[in-house]
Design goal:
Largest sheet: 5 strands, parallel
Distance between the termini: 83 Å
Number of helices: 20
Order of helices and strands: HHEHEHHEHEEEHHEHEHHEHHHHHHHHH
Number of strands: 9
Length: 410
């Protein structure tokens, strides 16, 4: 087995992280075999290095090595690119073309972003993995190929399978051996080392002195999330190397190049959102008012029914229960009842000829402004003039409540 340190130097791999070393060891062990390998990890972690190691350390190293970015090839031409096509198979097919699986016979093919393959192409790929057979587009002749497949993806494959975007049987054929490369943020001890290597490379490339970090800038470099992983670190190192005249990089200078720390950009105010928030609050308030109107109508109907039966005690009890339901108050007493049923109720009870005559005059106001004023006033009273609690009860923002309080001079 090739020495791990020599392997890193040969393929330009930097770092001594235990997870990285474990992945490299697995690649070295599977290389002499023909086992299909699936390389997983976030975008930018350097997954393309693993298939190169596997190919160079295998018995196929003198044959072709072809890397294919499956996500970059249009769905309509991917089958033709991978398996080839016959002349006249489709519009524009002016001659027969050999696909990558035919060209890479006895060699290695690297399928990057394999999770982006269309389902129809996945079926063809599964057949190649099972028995080494494929058919060109527009042909009926079965051809054989002897090719080693190494695939890579940054997708969550189990999630893609559940959504029906990737075949489960193909996944298990591809992932005979799964090699996972860790994200850069999980390799804290390697980040500064990689930065220094990139800085040295760019100094040679652009014929300028090498940049270096001041001691106080190093912790900032290590704490950064590096969502773009090694690719992002390389780009930022190149920017600093080219732009900065002072080759000693301070913490302030470094933070200016890290996306999350660039706070001098103009803020975008979404006025559309603020107006829509106001509209939503108004709709909620209208809905509450109309629901309240319906409840009062139900109260009126119940009152009249019980008045007709002459049970005045039951009238009062039912009215109080319904008022408590409307206002959410456990201590609603006669003062609430008076607001809903006016003082003329005694005359209504005594009138037997037309009990509905006076009751029809019990009509709530339909002015939304008056209802709004009344509800806000009640909410403030119940919450002892605490605007935050009152706004929460009304289902509106505290800012809107403050505006309404000023409007109604409460």
């Amino acid at each position: 087995m090739e020495n791990l340190q020599a392997l890193k130097q040969r393929f330009g791999i930097i770092g001594n992280d235990a997870l990285l070393n474990r992945s490299l060891e697995k690649a070295v062990r599977v290389a002499p075999t023909d086992i299909t390998v699936l390389v997983t990890g976030e975008s930018g972690v350097g997954k393309e290095s693993i298939p190169k190691i596997i190919h160079q350390l295998s018995h196929r190293k003198h044959a072709k090595y072809i890397a294919v970015n499956c996500g970059a090839i249009p769905e309509g031409t991917i089958d033709s690119e991978l398996f080839g096509h016959e002349k006249g198979a489709f519009t524009g097919a002016t001659q027969t073309r050999n696909g990558y699986f035919e060209v890479a016979d006895r060699g290695t093919i690297f399928l990057d972003e394999v999770g982006e393959l269309p389902l129809t192409t996945q079926v063809r790929l599964l057949r190649v993995l099972e028995n080494g057979e494929f058919i060109k587009v527009g042909s009926s002749k079965v051809q054989k190929t002897n090719v080693r497949i190494v695939a890579a993806t940054n997708m969550n494959m189990m999630e893609a399978i559940q959504k029906g975007k990737f075949r489960e049987d193909l996944y298990y054929r591809l992932s005979t051996v799964d090699i996972h490369l860790p994200a850069l943020r999980k390799r804290k001890d390697d980040i500064h080392l990689i930065f220094r290597k990139f800085a040295s490379d760019f100094a040679q490339k652009y014929s300028m002195p090498t940049i270096r970090l001041e001691p106080e800038a190093i912790p900032i470099l290590l704490r950064y999330a590096w969502r773009g992983n090694i690719r992002q670190l390389r780009n930022i190192t190149e920017q600093i190397s080219v732009i900065e005249q002072n080759r000693s990089i301070t913490a302030t200078t470094l933070t200016n190049y890290l996306p999350e720390h660039t706070g001098n950009l103009p803020a975008l105010v979404d006025t559309k959102t603020s107006s829509s928030d106001f509209a939503n609050e108004r709709e909620i308030l209208y809905k509450v008012l109309f629901d309240m109107r319906n409840d009062i109508t139900d109260l009126k109907k119940l009152t009249l029914e019980l008045m007709e039966s002459g049970n005045s005690v039951q009238v009062k009890e039912n009215n109080q229960r319904l008022i408590q339901k409307i206002y959410g108050e456990e201590d609603s007493q006669e003062d609430n009842l008076v607001e809903i049923i006016p003082a003329q109720k005694t005359e209504t009870y005594q009138s037997q000829q037309d009990p509905f005559h006076d009751a029809e005059t019990v009509e709530e106001t339909l002015s939304l402004q008056e209802k709004e004023f009344e509800m806000i006033k009640r909410a403030l009273e119940r919450n002892h003039n605490k605007r935050k609690l009152a706004a929460k009860e009304l289902g509106i923002s505290e800012r809107t409540l403050y505006r309404k309080i000023k409007q109604f001079d409460l």
